[in-house]
Design goal:
- The protein is built from 13 helices and 13 strands.
- Helix 7 links the parallel strand 5 and strand 6.
- The termini are far apart.
- The chain has 356 residues and is α/β, with parallel strands linked by helices.
- The chain has a domain of 243 residues: Rossmann fold.
- It binds nicotinamide-adenine-dinucleotide.
- Nicotinamide-adenine-dinucleotide binds next to helix 2, strand 2 and helix 6.
């Protein structure tokens, strides 16, 4: 290979997407596009973003879950909701053209591991292609910054504790411990680094862990059924899983971290764990907290792990939030799991009282 061809092959094209070093609007003048905003974490994000004075636009394939509607409150009907798929480039461009967002929070994707494993082309088109569609729309419309939702599901197993942003995600003998879920998250994460390196696109990735609170989904184990059944006066009995430890994180702490990440200084890290930085709690400990907080709660769980959860337990460890503390000035509100579950109990009671 000649010297010139070698140089040509290694050279980076000069591509200016026009957002490097651009001044950002004051927060109160910004429009934030939230994908997946009709879901659990999305509802908390919309509420937190509205509280900063932003205008918010939601892009989702469905209407709000009732809990998200309740969490957002009276403002919900003033938030434009675009029924659209991030997997559809034309539709994503339409939404950008109509609403001209100033920043993007990307939480919308397919989470169900069984669905992802059986619908692999859709898994790729939505969970990986969706990020590319969003980023290309950002480039087309000069949108400078995105916060991208990844997950602790990108981790293969624990190599050291606490896990921080430098912990490996690909090992010589293993990839992400959550197959198509974690692997599509990894693919999206690495593509964002490519856009950053080659084009200067500004992104931050959050990797949340075991997020709980009103509207939570079933992938975080029995905590949802324990809290909600206890409040409703119903039993919640589980044969397996008591010994499963998780770094539980309240949804409001995820939302406040995302708000901090949207205003991260340019030289801040790219990857932040969505956690409290505190110790893990087992599901048996969660059961005990629920029994103490809800008088008469009939909550029981066997200690042994089920076969299905054994591989996931291998990637559980305390997570470092030191970069969020030192670089973003962020602190979790619910460092205490007991206080976080107490908030969930009260919020669920209020939701039921309002007809939920
Ligand atoms: N809940 C957790 O413990 C947890 C942990 C780690 C990471 N996360 C991540 O947080 C994000 C939000 O998850 P959640 O827990 O709120 O779940 P969720 O299911 O409530 O929210 C996901 C939202 O994405 C929407 N969506 C699905 N396909 C879409 C598409 N093609 N286009 C646009 N929107 C689409 C869904 O309708 C839903 O409202 C996800 O990216 C998830 O991977 C969640």
């Amino acid at each position: 290979m000649s010297e010139s061809r070698y140089q040509q092959g290694m050279a980076r094209p000069e591509i200016d997407i026009g957002t490097r070093g651009a001044e950002r609007k004051p927060v109160a003048e910004r429009t934030t596009l939230v994908t997946g905003g009709a879901g659990f974490i999305g509802g908390n994000l919309v509420r937190a973003l509205l509280d900063t004075g932003r205008r918010v636009v939601v892009l989702d394939v469905r209407d709000y879950i009732p809990e998200a509607r309740f969490t957002i409150g009276d403002d919900v009907d003033a938030v434009p909701l675009e029924l659209a798929s991030i997997g559809d480039q034309a539709r994503v461009l339409d939404v950008f053209r109509v609403h001209r967002p100033d920043e993007v929070v990307h939480a919308g994707m397919i989470l169900d591991p069984a669905y992802l494993a059986t619908n692999r082309s859709t898994a790729f088109q939505v969970n990986v292609g969706g990020v590319i569609n969003l980023v290309e729309a950002m480039i087309a419309f000069g949108v400078p910054r995105i916060v991208n939702f990844s997950s602790i599901g990108v981790l293969p197993r624990v190599l050291y504790e606490p896990i921080d942003g430098n912990h490996p995600i690909l090992l010589a003998d293993a990839g992400p411990g959550t197959d198509f879920y974690g692997s599509t998250k990894v693919a999206a994460e690495v593509m964002l680094f490519a856009y950053k390196q080659a084009l200067g696109l500004d992104f931050r990735t959050i990797r949340p862990s075991a997020v709980y609170g009103l509207g939570m989904n079933q992938y975080v184990g029995p905590i949802k059924a324990m809290v909600e059944n206890a409040v409703r006066g119903l039993p919640a009995h589980f044969e397996f899983g008591g010994a499963h430890p998780r770094p539980y994180t309240h949804a409001q702490d995820i939302a406040s971290l995302v708000v901090a990440m949207l205003d991260a200084p340019d030289d801040a890290d790219r990857i932040f764990y969505g956690s409290t930085g505190g110790p893990m709690a087992t599901t048996s400990e969660v059961a005990q907290i629920v029994r103490e907080l809800v008088p008469g709660a009939d909550v029981e769980i066997g200690e042994e792990l089920s076969e299905a959860e054994k591989p996931v337990v291998a990637l559980r460890a305390p997570l470092s939030v030191e970069n969020a503390r030192s670089q973003l000035g962020w602190e979790p509100t619910y460092l205490s799991l007991r206080e976080g579950i107490a908030q969930y109990v009260e919020h669920y009671r209020a939701f039921i009282a309002a007809g939920g």
